[in-house]
Automatic annotation (TrEMBL):
Record protein name field: Regulatory protein
Region listing for Disordered, in residue ranges: 56-114
Organism name: Streptomyces poriferorum
Record bears the keyword Coiled coil: yes
Key words of the record: Coiled coil
Coiled coil (UniProt feature): 22-56
Length: 191
């Protein structure tokens, strides 16, 4: 009779293990989906930063030659921009038709009426008494604008854009880089 009692107990144990494994699997799928969404958003922000940097590079006098290693590491170089944007549009339509989630718009995209990162960074530095690093500026903007997704790389790009436009000055202390507002009034000469 003990053999009959052992069979349902073992079956129940296996059923519980399978249910636990299934639950863990579903949880892991959700975690991976969240990570995928985050990575897609990050990729969009990086591509936008690349466009800004490319424009800044063009304004500053052209592009230096890429090394062979840099050229190989860029996946997007193989697909022309027009096809790449059409592919994204088609993927979004296909995802909507099949019920799948489509990647969200970048949180760093400028909404109408919102200040640009350059405006925010120059305004913040204008109120400071000493130079600040990109990380410090980013942390302060995160506190001041919790509704916006603030990334140090985006802030650093805006700061460099400000330097390129003569709005900000860059100074180095060891390996650290600090930014401050550019002096708009030339200092009087002692001559």
């Amino acid at each position: 009779m003990s053999a009959n009692l052992a069979v349902p107990s073992v079956t129940a144990d296996y059923a519980q293990r399978v249910a636990d494994d299934l639950s863990a699997n579903r949880g892991e799928q959700e975690r991976v989906r969240s990570e995928l969404d985050r990575l897609q958003d990050e990729l969009v922000r990086l591509e936008e930063s690349e466009q800004v940097l490319t424009k800044m590079q063009d304004v500053l006098g052209g592009a230096p030659k890429q090394t062979a290693k840099q050229g190989k590491s860029r996946r997007t170089a193989a697909v022309p921009a027009a096809r790449r944007s059409n592919a994204k549009t088609a993927a979004g339509k296909e995802g909507a038709a099949s019920g799948r989630r489509t990647p969200k718009k970048s949180a760093s995209a400028k909404k109408p009426g919102e200040a640009t990162w350059l405006e925010l960074t120059t305004a913040y530095l204008g109120g400071q008494s000493e130079p600040r690093s990109a990380a410090e500026v980013s942390a302060s903007l995160t506190e001041a604008h919790p509704e916006r997704s603030v990334q140090v790389t985006v802030v650093r790009n805006a700061l460099e854009q400000g330097v390129a436009q003569g709005l900000l000055e860059r100074s180095k202390q060891g390996r650290s880089v600090f930014y401050s507002p550019a002096d708009t009034v030339p200092a009087p000469s002692d001559s």
